[in-house]
Every structure is written in structure tokens, then in C-alpha cells.
């Protein structure tokens, strides 16, 4: 899907923002605090009912407002007939998602309009907590295979039940065996899906990294959450006494992670800030490209302050990659002159400027 019309109300400092995005490249410029990231946040909200900056709706809502509403018209690939998609969330907890006259649940919305976000917080993929990398892997698993969400839910349920039995001390061995079986069955299948996803992602990641960063070669490895030379069943048996003493499940798929090495060293310790930005960008772009390959559908890229941390040649390479990707992109920057010269005249491109929450269109 791509967005052909967007209307935003009740988000941050944005003042009744309404515009028709270009099908390919949208450059949104403005000074610090003008609301550029908030426009990307609104598109993310449209795709998932959530912000990528905060989990608390009250911070996203314009001060004094009760509801955030993003309304759009979206186009399926190859279609000329845009369909209405609207997402509303209210401070009282109500959430409404309507697409072409019917309500959607969270999973349906996530499949309808997948987006990839690149902003300052994306660095955490390299040096943040493992849960951020698990979310990254699971995003891919969710979009790659419809079975994934059931496996993920089944595993979470088994983990929760095990942990509550371990926490309250008096362990009923029979009940524990039931949940152990579920934990192993779901956990093993979930891990196989995660591993297959990363195996498919690595060639995309290496290809894009080579385009963006030439000589830097990063080894990306999946860690399943336990010593994979042993079965999950064996590991559970072995660690049971320690788990009973500590009151929670020690190792398993809930500890899965990704490891990035450069010349055998933890890449996060070795890369410069610009290099880190290009590595995490390559990861997100690879995820979008793999999604396109697997589903034959495009992803929308939201890229906040693309030029920051990068020199001109790398900005050029980045823009050339985006241009060749054929996907819809929303790119923000402070100074539009840093981004406008890299696009071919045939590319459907639109320039917008934000001034204190007011958006205007600019001439190319
Ligand atoms: N809940 C809110 N209600 C009203 N205004 C808000 C709210 N939260 C943030 N703001 C203001 O909205 C603006 C949003 O800034 P945003 O982060 O989108 O700016 P930006 O153009 O991306 O800036 P920068 O270039 O510094 O990253 C800021 O001026 C901020 O003070």
C-alpha cells in the first residue's frame, strides 16, 4: 500500500495538517521543533495505532486534546482506486480503526500498512537491550508467515504460566510438565521461524550494507536464547533446580538476540556514529526489501533527519538506494537543499515545508 492522501489532527504541534503525498519520495523540511518527526509519528500511528517515540498516548496528543485522528486514502499496488483508512485513539482508551467501511484489529492493520522507521532511536538495534532486537526479528517473522503470530502467542502463554508456577514456589510437577511441553513445542517452532527469517535477511543486509558502506563487512548472527547444541527440552531439565531457586525461566527463546561483529569484535564498540547509522539503516532497509520479496507488496519508509551524521557522498548513496527501491518514502531534514539534488526528474517527488506545525507544499 502507499498513501495518496493524509490528514492529521490532534498530534503534537501539528495544525490541521492535510496533504497529498507523492507516490515515491516525500521530503519534509523545517527547523528544529517545527513538527517534522511528528508527521512521521502520525504515519506510524496510522500503520499501528502507536507512536515510535513513546508508548504513552498523552504525550503524542496535542496538549489539551482528547483524541488523535489520522485519516488517509491508501492505494494497493497496481490499483488506481484509493481506499479510506482512518485510525483514532482517545485518551479514555477507545481505539477505532476503519478501512474501507469495516473495522480492523491490530494484526490486520499491521499487515495492511507495514512501515520501517529510521530515527535516532533506531541506533538501539545495535547497542540497546536484546528485547529491541527480538522485536526486530519478530516483525520479520510476523510478516513472513501467518503461522508466526500463533506460535509467538502460544510461547508467551507457556512462558507466563511457567514463570508464575516458579514464582509461587509450590510447584505442581504435573502442571509444570504440561507447560514445559507447550514451552518446548512452541519455543522450538518459534525459533525455527526466527532462524529462517534471519537466514533470508542476511543476504539482503549484506547487499545493502555494501551499497551504503562499501568496505565495512558486518557479520550478523542469530542467537536463539540458549545453547543451540542442546535441545530446549534438555536445557529445561538441566536448569530446573536453578529456576526453582530463582523463581523464573532462565534460558530459552525469551532470551533470543542478534549479534553483530566486525572483524571479530562487537560492532557497536567499533563503529563510528555515521557508520552505526548506515548499519542500522541497512538492517531496516533489508527488512523492507525482504518483505517486498516475500509478499510482493511494498513497505513505507519513514526516515527522520536523513542527512544527520552523514557526509555528502553517503547521503547521495542513501538517496540513490531509496530511489531504486520503488517504495514510498517520507524523509525529513532541516535544510531541503541537502536532499533535493539527488533525484531523477522522472521520480514522483514532493517537497513540503513545516513551520511551527503548519505544512505547506514547495515547488521542486
Ligand atoms: N503533546 C504536545 N502538544 C503540543 N506540542 C507538542 C507536544 N509534544 C511536543 N510538542 C511540540 O511539537 C513539536 C514537535 O517536534 P518534532 O519533534 O516533531 O520536531 P522536529 O521538526 O522533528 O524537530 P527536530 O528537527 O528538532 O528533530 C515541538 O516543538 C514540541 O515542543
Written description of the protein model:
- Its main location: cytoplasm.
- Keywords: ATP-binding, Cytoplasm, DNA damage, DNA repair, DNA replication, DNA-binding, Nucleotide-binding, SOS response.
- The structure is a single chain.
- The chain is of the alpha/beta class and about 375 residues long.
- The chain has helices at about 35-50, 55-60, 105-110, 125, 130-145, 150-165, 175-215, 230-245, 265-270, 275-295, 310-325; strands spanning about 1-10, 15-20, 25-30, 65-75, 85-90, 95-100, 100-105, 115-120, 220-225, 255-260, 265, 300-305, 330-335, 350-355, 360.
- Helix 6 (about 150-165) packs across helix 7 (about 175-215) and helix 7 (about 175-215) crosses helix 11 (about 310-325).
- The radius of gyration is 22 Å and the shape is globular.
- The two termini are about 25 Å apart.
- Adenosine-5'-triphosphate binds near residues 13 and 32.
Q: What distance separates the N and C termini?
A: 25 Å
Rg estimate, integer Å: 22 Å
CATH topology of the largest domain: Rossmann fold
Describe the main β-sheet briefly.
6 strands, antiparallel
What is the CATH superfamily classification of the largest domain? P-loop containing nucleotide triphosphate hydrolases
Tell me the name of the CATH class of the largest domain: Alpha Beta
Tally the helices: 11
Domains (count) = 2
Please give the CATH architecture of the largest domain.
Answer: 3-Layer(aba) Sandwich
Strand content: 15-25%
Amino acid at each position: 500500500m502507499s498513501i495518496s492522501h493524509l490528514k492529521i489532527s490532534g498530534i503534537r504541534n501539528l495544525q490541521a495538517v492535510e496533504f497529498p503525498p507523492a507516490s515515491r519520495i516525500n521530503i519534509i523540511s523545517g527547523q528544529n521543533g517545527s513538527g517534522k518527526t511528528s508527521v512521521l509519528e502520525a504515519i506510524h500511528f496510522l500503520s499501528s495505532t502507536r507512536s515510535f517515540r513513546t508508548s504513552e498516548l498523552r504525550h503524542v496528543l496535542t496538549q489539551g486534546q482528547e483524541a488523535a485522528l489520522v485519516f488517509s486514502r491508501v492505494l494497493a499496488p497496481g490499483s488506481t482506486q484509493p481506499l479510506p483508512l482512518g485510525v483514532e485513539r482517545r485518551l479514555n482508551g477507545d481505539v477505532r480503526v476503519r478501512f474501507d467501511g469495516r473495522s480492523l484489529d491490530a494484526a490486520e492493520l499491521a499487515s495492511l500498512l507495514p512501515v520501517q522507521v529510521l530515527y535516532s532511536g533506531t541506533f538501539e538495534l545495535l547497542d540497546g537491550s536484546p528485547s529491541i532486537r527480538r522485536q526486530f526479528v519478530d516483525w520479520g517473522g510476523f510478516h513472513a508467515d501467518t503461522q508466526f503470530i500463533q506460535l509467538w502467542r502460544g510461547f508467551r502463554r507457556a512462558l507466563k504460566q511457567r514463570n508464575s508456577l516458579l514464582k509461587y514456589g509450590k510447584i505442581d510437577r504435573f502442571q509444570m510438565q504440561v507447560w514445559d511441553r507447550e514451552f518446548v513445542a512452541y519455543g522450538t517452532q518459534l525459533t525455527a521461524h526466527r532462524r529462517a527469517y534471519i537466514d533470508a535477511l542476511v543476504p539482503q543486509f549484506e547487499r545493502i550494507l555494501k551499497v551504503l558502506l562499501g568496505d565495512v563487512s558486518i557479520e550478523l548472527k542469530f542467537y536463539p536464547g540458549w545453547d543451540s547444541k542442546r535441545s530446549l527440552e534438555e536445557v529445561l531439565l538441566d536448569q530446573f533446580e536453578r529456576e526453582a531457586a530463582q523463581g523464573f525461566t532462565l534460558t530459552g527463546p525469551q532470551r533470543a538476540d542478534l549479534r553483530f561483529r566486525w572483524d571479530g569484535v562487537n560492532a557497536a564498540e567499533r563503529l563510528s556514529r555515521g557508520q552505526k547509522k548506515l548499519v542500522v539503516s541497512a538492517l531496516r532497509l533489508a527488512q523492507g526489501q525482504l518483505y517486498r520479496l516475500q509478499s510482493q507488496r511494498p513497505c513505507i519508509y519513514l526516515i527522520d533527519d536523513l542527512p544527520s551524521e552523514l557526509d555528502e557522498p553517503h547521503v547521495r548513496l542513501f538517496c540513490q538506494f531509496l530511489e531504486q527501491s520503488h517504495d514510498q518514502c517520507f524523509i525529513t531534514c532541516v535544510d531541503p537543499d541537502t536532499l533535493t539534488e539527488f533525484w531523477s526528474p522522472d521520480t514522483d517527488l514532493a517537497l513540503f515545508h513545516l513551520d511551527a506545525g503548519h505544512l505547506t507544499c514547495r515547488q521542486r
